[in-house]
Every structure is written in structure tokens, then in C-alpha cells.
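Record pair follows.
FIRST:
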Amino acid sequence: MFLTARPVRAALGAACALVVMAAGCSSSDDGEPDAGLITVTTMRGSFLQPAEIGPAWAAPEESAAPTTLVSFCGGGSTPPQVPPGAELVSSNAADEGEKGAQTLQQSALVYADADSASAGLGLLRTVADQCEKTSEVPAAVTADRNEPAYTETVEVRELDEGVWSGFVIVRHKLYEAAHPGTADVAVAVLRTRNVVLVDSYAIYQLNNASPAPNFEADWKKLVGSVVQRVG
């Protein structure tokens, strides 16, 4: 089942409030961010939990394998390989209804040092830069998938969130007119110190050919909530 885009605004109000509450969580006594290494425990505790996003959100029954990242390029492409040397931690959540769905897939690559994390970010950026800007994808009907034909566009932008820097991949999927619907996806890939965060927010709409109206603001609120918790 799916839900409309309308609940996104209410659900993300809680996540936005987390930014204010968590702004000082990772600071030292003098108010400056801790310059030490970030631990796996810290990153796991920084992920948004379903109840923090909104009452309709829940952990999915079937989550992606813990060794897998989300797809960068869309169009049926496979997810990028996890760059070597990192410990991967992740947490997923979804909000599903009859007219659409929202998903949040949070992953962190925790390295032993900042140089390794920087190299990992560079490898992921290489994958993003090779994505096709526009794809025409035919309908697919398989044992576990029934998807109409669609056109998908991909844009890669620079992204800075405080001490975090990297890029975001923004995808928009428009289904054929006979089966109206859209999918908007943002995959933010950011590094600070020894961690690379891969945070993907997606909203799917059925019987609606217009992009989700608050998609841009919503993914920024979700990503901002996580990065400010870490500092």
C-alpha cells in the first residue's frame, strides 16, 4: 500500500525539531565540535528512528542487506559497492499508504581515519558522476516486480552541511501516461572526519503526475537532523 505526499509535511515536523534539540550533542565542553574519531556506536545512535519521523513510519519488514548501499543512478542500476576499509551500519524506515509511500534509508561508512573516509567518498563520487542524466526504461513484469515504463532524470549537486561536505544525487521518475505516478529520490553522500554518510529519502506517488511539492525541503530536513546529531 501507499500514501499521499501530504503526510510528509506533518511527519517531517518532528524530524526538523530534532535539529534544534541535537545541535549540541557532539560538542566538547568549550562548545567546539569534537575533532576525534566518530565511532560506530555514535553513528548508529544518530540515525532517525521511525517514531521520531512521524506516527505512520515503521521499520520495514524486509530491509536491504547490511552490506549493501542504495542505488545511485536509478533506472534499474545496481547499488555501488561499499568502498574498502569501512564498517557499514544502517537503519531503514518507511511510511506506506494507499496512494503513495515514503522511505528513508540511512547508512554510514565508518573508517579508521579521515584519509580513508575521504578516499571512500571519492570512489562514490566517481560512481555518481557516471550516472546517465536521462533514462527511458521499458515496463517490467517479473515474478516479484510489476512496474510501468518511465522516464528518469538524474542530477548531481555539491552539498555542504556544516562540517559535512560531499554531494547529493537527485532523481525524478515520471511514469507513462497510462499509469500516472512519480518517484522523487535524493541520495545525500557526505563526509566528516572518518565517516561517510549515505542518506536516501524517496517519495512515491500513484495517480499523480506532479512532483512531490515539498520533496526538496523534506530531504534536507532529514539529512540535517542526522548530521547535526553527530556534529
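SECOND:
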Amino acid sequence: MTKFGPDKRPYIVAEMSGNHNGSLDRALSLVDVAAEAGADAIKIQTYTAETMTVDVKHPRFQISEGHELWGGEYLYQLYERAHTPWEWHQPIFERARERGIEAFSSPFDRTAVDLLEKLDAPMYKIASSEITDLPLIRLCASTGKPVIISTGMASVREIAAAVEAAQGAGATDVTVLSCTASYPAPPEETNLRRIPVLAQMLEVPIGLSDHTMGIGVPVASVAFGACLIEKHLTLDRADGGVDSAFSLNPEELRLLRVESERAWQALGTTHIGPTEHEKEGLRFRRSLYVVTDVKAGDKVTPENVRSIRPTGGLEPDSIGLALGRTFTSDAAKGTPLTWDLI
């Protein structure tokens, strides 16, 4: 049985990333606000600058100058600033359990998986840039835990290969996240219409890892079948932080939780016709009524018969057949017009 799916409300993941700003207290506060906002999980990233890259100041290791958030930074220095120290993992996981939400992580190498296994991480997330690291995917899958694979930048072939690697290593619970790996991501490049395409192609649950501003895009994704929504979280965008510019604040996360569930509830079924809660409204459709007192022998005219609310009389379209006929008996104002009355 999969952890996420169309029969369950969207699972909300608050991504901490580097928004702890180098403070364990802030990291724990992010766990608290995620829980208070109704998130199902807090996610971190498990790496060090050394496990991600090497300290070389060469253009190959430098982010392009035009990048909106990290232009000109070298990878090693960025990862030094953004990483979550490994000694923080246990208190973060413990705080999450205390607050009744799950804590898990994106590992980036074998040593990260080893650490997370010691902490009994409930699942693993493969970051978009690691989707081609099939040995890492197989390692995570071999733990028997659910595997979530983000697909930013990936081709159909790469996505299929990643899912095949996970399932081939024994994963029975794989979820794929549609993702646009730009920070922030333009809404017009989010391509939510690919969600049902991925679902049909891969036959696994599909979610959304979203880096757009606000909650409009992730709420809309629910209509396309997204069963998991991941958004970055900050205590306050004004405080800065590597990802704060495109992260949700606590109130926005709360709204995401509420509105994504409302969107999921609204999907309903393919039934066309009155619902249970519409039945009262059916009584107040229009029908033909006598609107002034009439006597037997009077002619039916627009002045004494009109289409009004409620139901009970002839359908409004019968007015053409009724006009000019003769009343067969007296009728008081407010009497439904029926064929036996004329």
C-alpha cells in the first residue's frame, strides 16, 4: 500500500533546506511552525560541502553571475552556508516526533544514508540533481523505506530509469514529484499538465515539488492529481537565508494545508446531477403558478399565470400551451398550475 495517493488528502512537506540560517534554535523553530501550520512532515537535506563537491575556485564550480539568488557563488561556499550540520539531525528528528509530524531528508551520498538509517528516517527523498545517481537511488530503495524522486530538469528517459532503479532495488512505495528546478520558478514553466502524463506513464503516485511564489500553483496541482506537495518554509522572508526568497512563511503554509485539502475534497466524482446538499434547492426551481385569484371560465393570460418559484406547477416551457385555455375551476393566488386546472 502506497503512502500517498488519490484516495488520501495531499501530504504537505515543509522543506527546511538552508533556512535555518546556521542556527539550531531556528531549525527547531521551523519544525514547530511546520507542525503548527498543519504540515505532515519537515524535510531537511543531509550533506556537507565535502560530500557535495570540492573547494576549487574555477568557473566550473561557480554559479552563473546572472542567477537570481546565488549569482557568482562557488558551490563549496554555498553548501558550507546552506548545509544542515549532522549533529543537528537527531534533535530535529526528535522535535518533529514530539510535535507529531514526520521528519525525513534528502541524502546525497552513502554516508548520509547511513546517518539517516541510524535516526530511523521514515522515507527518503531524491533531489532533482541526483536523479541520475542511480547507485544512490538503489541504496535508498534497499532500505525498504518509501522513496520520493524529484524530477526537475529530467528527461522522460532519466525519470523512467530512476523509477526502474528504485523498484529494481526492492522499493514497493515510489512517489515521483513533478518539479521545475529553478529558484524561484516561473509559474509558466511549472507545466502542471504533465502530472497526469507522469501518472499514466509510471503508474506511481505523482506529487509536486514547487518553487514558485505563493500557494496558487500547488493548490492548482491537486486538480491534476498531485498527492504530495513540497514547499520551502521560512520563519520570515525578511530574515534572509539561502532559500527564503521563494519560501512560504508560516501563515502561507497554513493556508496551503487548508486550501490543498479543500481542492482535493472538491475533486469529488464524475457524477452529474443534483447532490445531496442540492436537494433543497430543487424545490425552488421555477414553475407555472396562478398569480391572481381566478374563476372557472376565465382565460389563462400572462397576467394571471406566470413562471415563479417554487416548483409544483407545470414546467415554465409549458406557458405557450397554457395561454388562451380556460380555467375549469376557481383557483386562488399561489395555486400551482396543472393540466387538470385548465
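COMMENT: Residues 11-47+83-267 form a domain with the TIM Barrel fold (CATH 3.20.20.70).
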